[in-house]
Amino acid sequence: MQVVQYIQKMTRPYPGVYRTLTRVYGVCAEVGFFFHALLTGKLFVRPDKGRFSAFLSGQKVLSYPIRGANFTSIEEFRRWLERCGLDYVEGGWTFYLPPQEGLYLYFGFLERDYPPGAGLKILKDFRSPDEAVYTRHGLNPAPGAALKRSLTPSPMGLLRVANYLYSHGLGMRVYDLTALKGETATLTCYVIRDVHGPAVQSHDYDSFMEAISGHLDRGEILTIHQHSNVMWDFKPPDCSGNLIIDSATGKPLFVDFQGFLLKDEDRILARIANEVKDKTHFGGSRFYRGGGSYLYQAIPGLVVGKRDMGARWNVFLEMMKEAGFSLTDRRVYDIGCNTGLILYNALSEGAQWVMGWDMPEVVKGARRILLALGATRFDLYGEQITENTDFVSRIPERYRKEKDGVLFFLAVSDHIGFPEGIAELPWKYMFYEGHSRQGYEFTLERIRAVSWLNKAKILVRRSFADGDTPRREVILLKRSF
Ligand SMILES: C[S@@+](CC[C@H](N)C(=O)[O-])C[C@H]1O[C@@H](n2cnc3c(N)ncnc32)[C@H](O)[C@@H]1O
Questions:
Q1: pLDDT confidence of 448, banded at 50, 70, 90?
Q2: Does the CB atom of residue 432 touch ligand 1 within 6 A?
Q3: Does ligand 1 come within 6 angstroms of the Cβ of 243?
C-alpha cells in the first residue's frame, strides 16, 4: 500500500504518467480481487436458497416522513442539515446524526417509536432501502475498487451483518432500517444506538482484534477486503475511528458494518437452531418422526419443528382479514413466545415493535434466532411467568399509553394459566390458541371464566391442525376500554 502511495506522490506532477499508471493499477487490482473473490467464495455469498432466503430479512421496512425536507443532492442535504442547525458527521458513504436537541423536531418518529439515545445513519445513495447501495462506487470512485464495492450486501443484508456483530458483542445494536420520505427524495436510514465513551486504549484495541480475528478465522463472517491486516478500517489504535468504547459497558464496539459479508447464512441459522433446540423444548424433548430432537417452531425452508409456522401464520392472517384489521404499525405482544417466530412474522406484516416473554434460556435462543433472521424491532423478556407477573412494567414507556396492540396467547394457557397482569398490557386484539383435545365449548368456557376476558368480543374462530400437532381451537377476540 505504501509503495502505491509513494508512486502516486512521485507521478502526480506528470498527469499523463499518473493517469496511465492509475489505469494499469486499477485493472490489476480488479483482476487480482476477482480471483481472490472467486477462490474464497465471496463472489457467491448471496443467499439464494429458495424458501429460506425468502423468509430471511422478512421484517418490513417502515417509512417515515421528514419535516420540511426538499433536497435531491448530497450538497443540498448538507445545506439542509446546516439550516436546521443539526450536528452531523460526514463519512465517505453516510451522514451520521447523533442524538441531539432538535433531532426530534425534524425526525419526530424517533421519539415516538424508538428507544431514547438513538442516532441516524443516512446513506448518501439517495434511494429507497430496496434500491440503495451502501458503497455506491460512483459516489467515491477509486481505482481497482469497483468489484469489491459491488460485493457489499444490500441494506437489508447489512442489517444481518450488523446483527451478527452485535450478537457476538462486537458491534452496537441497530434498531432498524427505515425509509425516510422527504418531499423530493427517499433516504435509506439506519436507526442505531449511539455509542460514545472514553478514548480507545491499546488493550481495548487488542481485545477487539483478537475477538474479530477469531470470528474471521471461523469463516462465518468475512471482510470484503482481501487482507484484514492491512485494512484501513482496522488500523490501531481505534480502527480509524470505527472502534468506540461504549461508556455503558466499557466494551469496545465496532460501529461500521459495511465492510463485512456473511457466508452461508442458512448454515449459520441451522447451527443456531441446533444449539438452541434443547433449551427451547418445553415439557421434555420432542422427537422428529425421522429421529432426533427438534424445535417447537419450525423455521420455514430450513429447520423442521412441531408447528408449521408458515401454515399457522396464514390462518392468523386470514382471521385478521376477516376481522378487518392488520398488524401494520402496531405493537405486538407474545406471551410464551418460544423462538420468537410469531413475532418475526408480525414484523414482516409491518408491526412497528414486538415484545415477547418466555423462560430466560428460551429467550436467549429466541434472541439469537431473531437477530440471525435480520429482525431488529423487538424486545424479549426472559423470566418465569407466574400468576403475579407484572408485564406492563417491562415494556418501553413509550408504548404504555397506546391501546391498539395485538396480543398472542398461543398454546400456553395450560402452562401459565391466565395471569392478571396480561390485562394491563395495552392490547386491543387477542389471538387465543388452546391445546390439543380442547374443543370449542371447553375453550369458550375457559375464556369466559377469566375476569379480564369475559367481556371481550369473539370476532373470528378457527379450528386447524398444522405440523405434528392435532387440531386446535384458535379464537380472535377484541376488547373495548
Ligand atoms: C407449547 S409452547 C408454545 C409456544 C408459542 N406460544 C407457540 O404457540 O408457538 C409453550 C411456551 O411457553 C413457555 N412457558 C411455559 N411456561 C412458562 C413460564 N412459566 N414462564 C415463561 N414461559 C413459559 C415455554 O418455554 C414455551 O416456549
A1: very high
A2: no
A3: no
27: left (phi over 0), alpha (psi -120 to 50) or beta: alpha
Domain map of the chain by residue range?
1-40, 45-262, 274-478
Ligand 1 mean position, distance from CA 282 (Å): 7
> What is the pTM assigned to this prediction?
0.94
Q: Which atom of ligand 1 is nearest the CA belonging to 334?
A: 6
List pLDDT tens digits, range 320-373.
999 999 999 999 999 999 999 999 999 999 999 999 999 999 999 999 999 999
Q: Pick from 248, 260, 108, 261: which is nearest to 180 by CA? A: 108
Please check whether residue 120 is in contact with residue 191, taking contact to mean a CB–CB distance below 8 angstroms.
Answer: yes
CATH number of the domain at 274-478, out of 3.40.50.150, 3.20.20.70, 3.20.20.80, 3.40.50.1240?
3.40.50.150
Q: Is the CB of 416 under 6 A from ligand 1?
A: yes
415 pocket-lining for ligand 1 (C-beta < 6 Å): yes
CB 166 within 8 A of CB 157: no
The per-residue pLDDT for range 227-283, each reduced to its tens digit, is 766 566 889 999 989 999 999 999 999 999 999 999 989 999 999 999 998 888 754
Find the angle CA(469)-CA(473)-CA(479) to the nearest 5 degrees: 140
Any atom of ligand 1 within 6 Å of the Cβ of 303: no
Q: Which of 25-29, 419-423, 440-444 has the lowest mean pLDDT?
A: 25-29
The pick from 415, 416, 431, 468 for probing ligand 1's pocket by mutation, whose C-beta has the most ligand atoms within 8 angstroms, reads 415
C-beta neighbour count of 80 within 10 angstroms = 17
Statement: residue 402 has pLDDT above 80 = yes
Which residue owns the Cα nearest ligand 1 atom 13? 336
